[in-house]
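Task 17 of the worksheet. Students: predict the tertiary structure of the chain below and write it out as structure tokens. Keep your answer in the requested format; marks are given for formatting as well as content.
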Amino acid sequence: MRADIIRRIIRAYDDPVVRAYCWVRFWILRQRFLDEIGQYLPESGAVLDIGCGFGLFSLYYAATSPARFVRGVDLSARRVAMARRAASRLAIDNVAYEEGDARTFKGDGEVAAAYMLDIVHHIAPDTVVPLLRRLHACLSPGGVLIVKDVDTRPAPKRWFTWTLDKLMAPATPVRYWSGDELAAALRAAGFQVRRHAMLDFLPYPHVIYIATRRP
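Model answer:
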């Protein structure tokens, strides 16, 4: 059933290049990993997707839990437009998209949860802690922020990931955070933090950080 949702989402995009990108993203973050991340999201309530891109994962999490309302924010007007068009074609009405910069995002209401998937290593290091603090402020007490990113170790996996990042977006700066460093940044923003390692046959050092606002 959920694999069929992934196929339907990919088919909702017109551009063959975007569809190919979607297949790659869903291949890297397969259904097992999406559900591994999704287990930490509430089944209902407002959820923020920071750096939502074409809306792949927000559409998945909205489709698999209709009581959620997922709000996607992305810097690119083109990506936001494509995400809206895909949502309309799929008749998924518990999702909305807006143009905005993650580096200067300011929450304008309380949400039950938020997530960032492979975003932290693409934004300037000095903007990360301020962003985490703003996300902390817009979460309800007991709310959760899920950060999926890549670790700096083991080094061969880091270099493999760096090579792919540069192939996908050569001009975009990449700065990976060690597990201890990113966990410390989350704690500095006021979160309680635990880590969840994602074990995979692919050479990616995936890590999920489950950051909770204290009740």
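Marker's comment: Helices lie at 2-11, 16-28, 31-38, 56-64, 77-90, 125-138, 155-168, 179-188. The chain has one domain: 2-213.
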